[in-house]
Specification:
Layout: E1 3-4, H1 16-38, H2 40-47, H3 51-79, H4 81-101, H5 106-134, H6 140-148, H7 150-169, H8 171-182, H9 185-188, E2 192-193, H10 208-238, H11 243-270, H12 275-295, H13 298-314, H14 316-326, H15 332-359, H16 362-387
Parallel strand pairs: 1-2
Helix pairs in contact: 1-4, 1-5, 1-6, 1-7, 1-8, 1-10, 3-4, 3-5, 3-10, 3-15, 4-5, 4-8, 5-6, 6-11, 6-14, 7-8, 7-11, 10-11, 10-13, 10-15, 10-16, 11-13, 11-14, 12-13, 12-14, 12-16, 15-16
């Protein structure tokens, strides 16, 4: 039965098949980038890929997303959530196959991975709007948690791919397997009718200060979180951990991340008051995790990898819930601005991290990440006070 994007949800608890829509799209779009990050050691020998160049590839992913984010947000209500997410999955699968079959140097990775970033910019507003308009507000924290579990789930799949596929068959086989895994999801996503475009009149003015606080704070937090996802396997290798072992640690962290994101989302549904302060507290724990990554021994580093999937990404379900609630009932305009600011952080973060590694060390880069994350927590604290007025 089609889901009406304009209407209220028929029940408080969303169906599992309905939640496949906002999970499958982001998952497919994350895979090209994070599979590249997980296999950077293996790919580096053939493609001459080092930490600085991995930062450029990661920045290209988010730069393409930034360019396409505005038209993506404009198209979503006009062609419908299902078609938008299906288009994103097909683009991501094309990115995976092009990396496997056509890329012969690190420079070739840049446009191939950028296609997945473009796909992500199409999928993200569609998935967020789907939850905001079709899931009961009392269950939106849970739904956002499930949606945001796509990223640690992609880390889980990429981590498993290292010892199970890439080690025996080569890194190109891992990209082919990922494309084969995601293509069938195009056929099983539920049908969703496109909603009519909203009239431009009668909208409340946007709180610019709150938009900037939420946008810049999230940009800082995403900058460090995406740097972690892009460089953690390479950093583990520099710390003496074999690539296959690092892949298994990332896979374990992915499991922990999936469970923790859903749990944090459920808890946010039950504790609706001041969700930004919950996000702030998780960010402070994230900053501490970055410090541990910077100073830890090999054993401590390995444990910190798993814990990081809770702290470094755990704030995002609560943040998305707080952002949607802060600008209700018309969150589209402010959230598009916030997404644009976030993309800037996503571009600058991994590129800056790679530069610090090249001129300094991984240790220095993790310490800088901790400082930036602490600043993000401060901005969330100020934003919480603004929303209380």
């Amino acid at each position: 039965m089609p889901v009406d994007e304009c209407g209220s949800p028929p029940s408080v608890r969303p169906r599992g098949r309905d939640l496949l829509l906002p999970v499958a799209g982001p998952l497919a779009c994350f895979l090209p980038l994070y599979l590249t990050a997980s296999l950077a050691f293996s790919m580096g020998r053939e493609l001459n890929l080092d930490a600085g160049r991995l930062g450029v590839v990661t920045g290209a992913y988010f730069a393409a997303g930034a360019v396409a984010s505005i038209p993506g947000g404009w198209l979503t209500p006009r062609i419908g959530y299902t078609r938008m997410i299906q288009a994103g999955i097909l683009l991501a699968a094309g990115s995976l196959l092009s990396i496997a079959l056509a890329v012969r140097s690190w420079a070739g990775l840049v446009p191939a991975v950028a296609v997945a970033g473009l796909a992500q910019s199409l999928v993200e507003p569609a998935a967020g709007a789907y939850i905001g308009t079709t899931v009961d507000r009392r269950r939106q924290g849970f739904a956002f948690g499930v949606k945001l579990a796509a990223l640690p789930l992609s880390s889980l799949l990429c981590g498993i791919a290292v010892p199970l596929v890439a080690a025996p068959l080569g890194w190109r086989a891992a990209f082919i397997a990922a494309a084969a895994l995601m293509l069938p999801t195009v056929l099983v996503t539920p049908t969703v009718r496109p909603r009519a475009a909203r009239p431009a009149t009668g909208r409340a003015p946007v709180n610019v200060a709150l938009v900037l606080l939420l946008g810049i704070g999230a940009a800082m937090a995403f900058a460090t979180a995406n740097s972690f996802s892009a460089f953690i396997v390479s950093s583990a290798g520099a710390n003496g951990i074999p690539e296959s072992t690092a892949g298994l640690l990332v896979a374990l962290g992915g499991v922990v991340g999936v469970v923790s994101r859903i749990y944090i989302g459920v808890r946010a549904d039950r504790a609706r008051r001041r969700p930004l302060l919950i996000a702030r507290n998780i960010l402070l724990a994230s900053a501490a995790t970055f410090v541990v990554l910077g100073i830890g021994s090999t054993t401590t580093f390995a444990v910190a990898i798993v814990i990081a999937f809770v702290t470094i990404w755990g704030w995002s379900p609560v943040y998305q819930l707080a952002s949607v609630s802060a600008f209700a009932p018309d969150p589209d305009r402010p959230l598009r601005i916030i997404v644009s600011v976030i993309f800037a952080g996503c571009i600058a973060g991994p590129m800056g991290f790679g530069w610090v590694v090249e001129v300094g060390s991984f240790q220095a880069a993790w310490f800088v990440s901790g400082a930036v994350t602490t600043l993000a927590a401060v901005l969330f604290t100020i934003a919480a006070r603004v929303t209380d007025r």
